[in-house]
Prior knowledge:
- It is built from 11 helices and 11 strands.
- By secondary structure, it is α/β, with parallel strands linked by helices.
- The chain folds into 2 domains: 31-109, no CATH class; 119-248, Rossmann fold, CATH 3.40.50.1970.
- β7 (119-124), α6 (130-142) and β8 (146-150) form a beta-alpha-beta unit.
- α4 (61-73) runs parallel beside α5 (85-94) and α6 (130-142) runs parallel beside α11 (234-248).
- The protein is globular.
- The two termini are 15 Å apart.
Amino acid sequence: MTKNxxxxxxxxxxxxxxxPASAMERLANFTYEELGHxxxxxxxxxxxxxxEVIFAEGKSPQQTAEIFSRxxxxxxxxxATRADSATAIAVQRDTPAAVYSxxxxxxxxxxxxxxxxxxxxxxxxxxxxxxxxxEAAITAELFGTEVSxxxxxxVAGLHRLLAHREALTKADAVIVCAGMEGALPSVVGGLVGVxxxxxxxxxxxxxxxxxxxxxxxxLNSCSPNVTVVNIDNGFGAAYTSVLIARASNxxx
Length: 252
């Protein structure tokens, strides 16, 4: 349920095109829809401006497919993260228009108008960080924000980053995905005057402790505009960045 769809129902009742009883039936799942294995929060878009997102990991392909198709039927944009190939097959069987990215492990269905609000730059330190960066980029694009992808610009070759200064200065927020020692967000933070969302990735050798070293390095950044999300959480970084970009460009 989006603001536009709710307004359409109310206008139809006002004009007499549908009866109050019919409108009540359509609004029966206004708050959430009970599926037995899940309760879909159709009301979230009205509260937050962005729809509920499906975390597919741990769900069966059939469970994700049912949730995805029911959300699609409501007319909202739909996103599933951490989706494997078996889940993609099940979802696309019910919702053929869903787009699967094997690299990002996302399934996305765009149904809202393609009006873009704000700009986000998504950076990866290395090619190995790109799956997390792509999860962030796809999430931000689905939710209506223009995305600049700037990949493989880690601190081992700083000139690669500096070649993209213009794109960085145009962004309302910057997402930086980095593993190993996690230094790139601090460097970026010193180059831009907008929030930098740092995403530690689980990329690195043994002493990186699955991304914990990068996480601690980012938490101790000396750049005051850097904030940090959890390891490999490209989705969380994108969600926050979309809200920042929208606020910078006139709200929702």
